[in-house]
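Translate sequence into structure tokens.
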Amino acid sequence: MVKLFYADIEPLKNTRWRDVLPALPLWRQKRTLEMARDPDAARAAGAGLVYVQAMESFGLDPMAPVTFSEYGQPQRPDIFFSLSHAGPWCVCAAAPEPVGADVEAARCSLAVAKRFFPGSEYEAAAALEGQAQREYLARLWTCREAVLKALGTGVLGPGYEKLEIQLTASSAAALRDRTPMELSLREFRLGEYYLALACRDRFIEERPVVIHG
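Result follows.
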């Protein structure tokens, strides 16, 4: 089972994120304090809070130390997890098998797509206009990053150039070297934000979290 936790960070805005630091594991406290701006610190702290909820839901110690892969991805030996945050939202997906999550606003441009996406993806996006194009690019970006996180790398990690995302109006699929991957893609909307989840397990349990300021 994949558990998907998400929360609105509104209660942590300004400097109120400092109040929740003691509830976070040390590695997440450090990450939060590295942020130069309060909005970024609030998102980092919020992601830490949903991470704690996710670990506790599996009966695991959220304060246990994590290590970081060579691509900067946090990891622990007893479960797979993926963190993401953007705008007012923070997300944590956790599962016994590889999982990746990404949440973003519709801000990916056609110029970015031309530089980083395969030709087939760029051409499909370029054929659209206006809001339809912005939505398509947002879906491509979040799905692509979710898959690469599930593989243990970031958006520009090894293999990104071999990854292709195929979208229809209601579904998404990931291919590598034109071969369908074992990872399945699920898409969600959090208000105006786009959320993609890459995982092997098709059973997903959504867990909205209320953060109290």
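Note: The helical segments are 26-33, 38-57, 110-116, 119-126, 130-150.
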